Amino acid sequence: MLRELEISGPFDLGSTTRVLKVGSRDRDGAWWWATQTSCGPGTIRVARTHGGVEAESWGPGGELLLDRLATLIGADDVVGIEGDNANVADLLRRSAATRLGATGAVFESTVLTVLGQLVTKTESTEARRRLVHRFGQPGPGPNQSLTMFPRPEVIAALTYDDLHDAGVERKRASTVIEVARRSKRLDEILGMDNDAARRRLSAVRGIGPWTTEIVMGVAYGDKDAVPPGDYHLPNSIAFALAGEARGDDQRMFELLEPYRPERRRVVVALKVAGVHAPRYGPKSAVRRHL
């Protein structure tokens, strides 16, 4: 199945899909993602064209992925804020080609975010790799290197030992299994308003504000989602917006307040630009809140 989509204005497929935290790119720069959908497994390949993108899909869930294409890559995403702060204006300019899309894959996004709780990025990436390698399935289509994230029923049936072997300690393992057991309820957030969606996510034991806000941004598509309790983000926001080397959550939200309802756009712009606060002292493991 093929579909073409025109996109007006600047658009960078690479930086846009990196924000989604799923899928991979091939040598030609096309983005591939294999995932479980409500219609079954599906694979999508999205390639840049002169006027937009061309997408091809495979599997029972392929047509649904094509139907979600515009939302997935933020084709209709329009910047609705202005940078009164000169630094913010510069960040928005530098990230103008990065669109804010949404995967719609609530279960997958939630589990991947839980794997990132209280550990370093390296540790969470390794846990993800082990889970996918051991319990995932090949994605439909010609790309034999694609493996889908395990289905909810597969994760729900895992033991603590299974998850321990993947590098996930008991606390996160309990949350991962609970998320899998409640996957259908969590998928329903896509039809809820922002507040109701947040309540549904945070009702799961082990899911706190940090996890909730990341899922609301990546899977749900809330452009105002900003995670509190992040190890680096408050410092980076304080440095980028006010020239301050250090900041806490209170200072971060104070500085971001003028940019409602698109505070997430400022956060993404900062990451795209590679801006971060000065780093002092020896490196240590990054510990994030829930």
Question: Your description of this structure?
Answer:
The chain has 15 helices and 7 strands. It is α+β, with helices and mostly antiparallel strands and 290 residues long. The strands form 2 sheets. A 5-stranded antiparallel beta sheet has the order 1-5-4-3-2. It has a two-stranded antiparallel ribbon with strand order 6-7. The longest helix has 15 residues. The radius of gyration is 19 Å and the shape is globular. The termini are far apart.
Kindly provide the radius of gyration, computed on alpha-carbon positions and rounded to a whole number of angstroms.
19 Å
In total, the number of strands is: 7
The major β-sheet equals: 5 strands, antiparallel
The class by helix and strand makeup works out as alpha+beta
Distance between the termini: 40 Å
Helix-strand layout with pairing:
Blueprint: E1 2-6, H1 13-20, E2 24-25, E3 31-37, E4 40-48, E5 52-58, H2 62-67, H3 69-72, H4 86-94, H5 106-115, H6 121-135, E6 137-138, E7 147-148, H7 152-156, H8 160-165, H9 170-181, H10 183-187, H11 194-202, H12 209-220, H13 233-242, H14 249-256, H15 263-273
Antiparallel strand pairs: 1-5, 2-3, 3-4, 4-5, 6-7
Main traits of this protein?
290 residues; alpha+beta
Brief overview:
This protein is an alpha+beta fold and 290 residues long.
